[in-house]
UniProtKB/TrEMBL annotation:
<comment type="similarity">
    <text>Belongs to the TonB-dependent receptor family.</text>
</comment>
<dbReference type="Pfam" id="PF00593">
    <property type="entry name" value="TonB_dep_Rec_b-barrel"/>
</dbReference>
<keyword id="KW-0408">Iron</keyword>
<dbReference type="InterPro" id="IPR012910">
    <property type="entry name" value="Plug_dom"/>
</dbReference>
<dbReference type="GO" id="GO:0009279">
    <property type="term" value="C:cell outer membrane"/>
</dbReference>
<feature type="domain" description="TonB-dependent receptor-like beta-barrel">
    <location>
        <begin position="273"/>
        <end position="706"/>
    </location>
</feature>
<dbReference type="Pfam" id="PF07715">
    <property type="entry name" value="Plug"/>
</dbReference>
<keyword id="KW-0406">Ion transport</keyword>
<protein>
    <submittedName>
        <fullName>TonB-dependent receptor</fullName>
    </submittedName>
</protein>
<dbReference type="InterPro" id="IPR039426">
    <property type="entry name" value="TonB-dep_rcpt-like"/>
</dbReference>
<keyword id="KW-0410">Iron transport</keyword>
<keyword id="KW-0998">Cell outer membrane</keyword>
<feature type="domain" description="TonB-dependent receptor plug">
    <location>
        <begin position="87"/>
        <end position="194"/>
    </location>
</feature>
<dbReference type="InterPro" id="IPR036942">
    <property type="entry name" value="Beta-barrel_TonB_sf"/>
</dbReference>
<dbReference type="InterPro" id="IPR000531">
    <property type="entry name" value="Beta-barrel_TonB"/>
</dbReference>
<keyword id="KW-1134">Transmembrane beta strand</keyword>
<keyword id="KW-0675">Receptor</keyword>
Amino acid sequence: MRIIRIKPPQIIVLERQMNPSNTYKLPAKLPASPICLLATFLASGWACVAEAQTAPAQTKPAQTNAQPDTLVLDPVEVTARKTREDLKNVPESITVVPPESLKAAPFDPGAAIARNSPNVQWISKATGQQFFSIRGVSSLGTPVNFSDGTVAFNIDGVPNSMMSASNILLDVNRVEVMRGPQGTLWGSNALGGAINVVTNQPDGTRDIHATGEIGSNGYRMGEMVLGGNIIADALDGRMAVRFGHQDGDIRSLYTNDLGERDIAAFRGGLRFTGIENTTVTLTGSYLRDEGNPPFYLLRNTSRSPLSGTLTEPSSRTTQGGATVTVEHEFDAFRFTSVSAYQHNKLDSKSDNTDKLLYDALGFPAFSSRGHLDDRENIYSQELRLNSLEGDPVRWVIGASVARTEGSRACVSTQCAPPPYFDAITMNTDLDSTNLGVFGDISIPFAERWEFSIGGRLNHDDIELKRRNSRDIAALTGSNSTSQTYPTGRTALAYKWSDEVQTYVSLARGHATRVYPLFGYPVNGVVDDPYPAATGWTYEAGLKTSLFDDRLKLDAGVYHNDIKNGVLSYLDPALGAFRTTYQDYETTGFELQGRALIADGLILTGGLGYTHSKLGANGASTNTVAGNGVPNAPKWTAATGLQYDTSAGVLTLPGRLSFGVQYQFTGSRPADVDNSFDLKPYHIVDARVGWNNDANDLEIYAFGRNLLDQRAETFGARFVGVETVAAGPGRIVGLGITKSF
């Protein structure tokens, strides 16, 4: 008896390392025919679905009921509950995005994460001004500071701010997208969910390879990975570097084309294993991302996207950090300490006047330049104790602290009142400290039942100080706030069989109170912060495996009831962003799955639906109650197909691969007034590759956004005129990967 190992779906890029010995002939008789499997997949509502439940492959252990020569999909491992476990056993709606999917958008991984995750959006105004939305829960409009997030973003369990959410994710193992409030285990500002990026660790595995890509629109990218053992049984190492460039593809009447990117990224680490049952891992990373993104674009121009900015904008983001992780395994539990430091900086210059926009308004155009210099230092520490993998009762307890020291220097009409406007520099310091203690436990009972419950007690201290370059007393002031609050989650799961589980859950979410970075004191008085957004989430779900693990399906339904969602909007009278708050609710479902149709042929997918409605309580109830939530589409969907086979069909040595993926995002309101909808868009990516027999060389061709659809990634209405931000266009090219 043998179980054939099937790689997980790799829609965009064939996995670099393949074992030629894992090539098998199809058995004469399968447990279920490909036609039957495909029909079941489509009949289950998966005809228009996106890649979802995928992760690096694990060899599936043999089972007593397995048939000879059985083809199976491998289990998916996640750490959503701070311990390694099979995804099918976690009573939550989770998507695992593999590294191959991120390569479809190497300069914009946030977009790749969202497109592969049902009911997840990546709202992008410009570099450094981007954020996630999960199930319609997000900042309403645009975040007012870099802590104003409702989706916690983590890299290897380390909390990041929204400034680093645009990080070029280098040397990634997988991305776990967790829906619903995750504050219990993932800290503050996880009201809508959490995203954890799991990078490849220095585990001693020998991995030395180089990749180069070149394509249209001046695209070029080079990457190198070095990994292996340095000192036997004592020290392992791994490092990765990436450089990339892309020309601007937004035409500009008065400047160079906009949207240009220059990327340089590094990630590296050392792991010490010389102490029994103890590992110490030191990792570090650095990113430099330079470009010239437009401030906004007039919608529906004759050659859209087209900019009429009078001054070429510029943006430079730098991010650096280090993490020390210590793990020690005792007989009954595991101790983990995660200590981290991050430094983020965003320096951006823009012209707030676009001649095309002002022509549409009937106003004369004039240059109105703005300059923002944002910086933050983040210090974090987490200590926790976990049960060991395989223990009948899963539990975790711990404590965490995070300290953020942020600053902004702003020269802009949005930062100072008349008559000063951009004649002075407004300086803002925003410092916060978050303390938390948490615990979570899952207890099996009555053979097939499992009860889970967890909670966290948070305490926030936040202080805002404003001053100015002219020492004007009326524009100088400070304010502070403190708050202690609980969050929690409980779930009840029932296993109908080893292949079918259902669950219901209830979760309480809580964000931090919010001070806007834009703004100024009035007569020396700084306004109090906006109230903290809170919410209840109700969820029920199903996880099942069919046809001897050849078809895996997840389904979930949910309802979010959110109070005091922070709302940022463009005030047409002032031409500046203003802030208020609003209640809202969202209801919907997700479907996710993957199917092994035949040997080497995998279909993957996910479908999401969200119905959203702004509530009757908030600062704007007279005008927006009943409107849809901004940036929340009703439908998100995609489907992907991957086929790997011997190149002998073309009388060639080695192996061939073909992957194609289609992704859809529906229309969604641009603002709380629902003044217009952002257009739906369709993204098609494809890739064809060849590997040699030695499996140390791959040559491939790729096409990204083959339909050349310029997705509207953000929108705002300016005195009756619609403005948007535009996503990147089509890129086609060639790539090569060589292993050593």
